[in-house]
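Re: beginner question about structure tokens

> Can someone show what the tokenized structure looks like for a real chain? I only ever see the sequence side.

Sure, here's an example I had lying around. Input first:
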Amino acid sequence: MAQRSTRSSRKGLLQARLLSNADKDNLLACGVDPASLPYLVPKLHHVNLLLRGVRLYAANILKQSMLSIGGDVAVHRHVISGKVETSDCVIMGDLRHFRLLMDKLKLQPGLEPLAESIREQVLTENGPLTLNLCGKNLEWKELPVIMGILNVTPDSFSDGGKFLEPGPALEHALVMVKQGAEIIDVGGESSRPGSQNVDAHEEASRIVPIIKQLASVLEIPISIDTTKATVAKAALHAGASIINDITALRDDPDMVTLARHSGCGVILMHMRGTPKTMQDNTHYEDIISEIYMFLDERIEACLNAGISPESIIVDPGLGFGKDLQGNLSIMRHIAEFKSLHMPLLTGHSRKTFIGKILDCGIDQREEGTDALTSWAALNGVDLVRVHDCLHAHRVRSVIRSIMGT
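And the corresponding structure tokens:
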């Protein structure tokens, strides 16, 4: 950082201040003509868009088109010589550049789909979260939506054994709702690293009684955290309307059929291996691209199977087959998963990587969890799955107040 000059050496210099998150009010304060705002506001935002596998002729057109309007495109060094057939491209510019680029591309035969891909990623405005759950349309305007964790297990990493009985479990769920939970996620099998599988009958016996009680007193959605179709079916019959599957509907072949027929919501999570083996190999060549491609493929598989796009949520799987640096990379680039155009969930609450950063135990990870919730909120995450709903609600309230939303 450059050293600040002394007052005496700054005599005669104009007062200067870097603006963060500049908006139309900064422009109006300068006295600009309000009629010029549609042209000036887009220039306040800079966007970097990655396109993969662009054919050679299209990459050259992208490059020349952006250069002609003041933007730029990073392409493979052999695009000019023609030694490659395709190139990944990073398009760099503000919103004005992207609009002009799309106008140019629409005039090029065969590049209309490319222009539409750019429009979909860059110019689509975010609105409230809407989901269709078992035929019921729901909408949340305050994001991220808070999903409260209710583990009715003896061995979950954070709260195992506390809520095995329906009475304490119901009481805790009602407390979470009072504190701000908008979805309750019920789990009857631990998925902590190294955990063992639970028999489907045992798992169902844990979750069905509490889901029935919750469904009789709550109006908010209930999610079932399971990988087994028989358990999920029992949970849906008891009153749940979302399946939260850490295998992304891959482990049990009947899960996709159940989701399609019931119309329930589905949460597709990335995990390498199983909870018992997932931490044996946490190496990735490109962790963000690999998770992105996995989730993209699972979305397509669900859509092709007849599951409604309005029912799908994606989760990059923090802590599931990732090491410290992998988890940090996911959070650093979490906004990139918004390009999947599905609601995005993070399950970061009290995870081991927080303990490694802070050198603390499970019961001392709330501040780290709150920091990640804040980061998630600022980067467009739609849902956060947390243990402490009051903290998450307060974090969201402050972030939304700062952002003026």
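Each token stands for a local structural state, so reading them left to right follows the chain. The longest helix spans residues 200-217.
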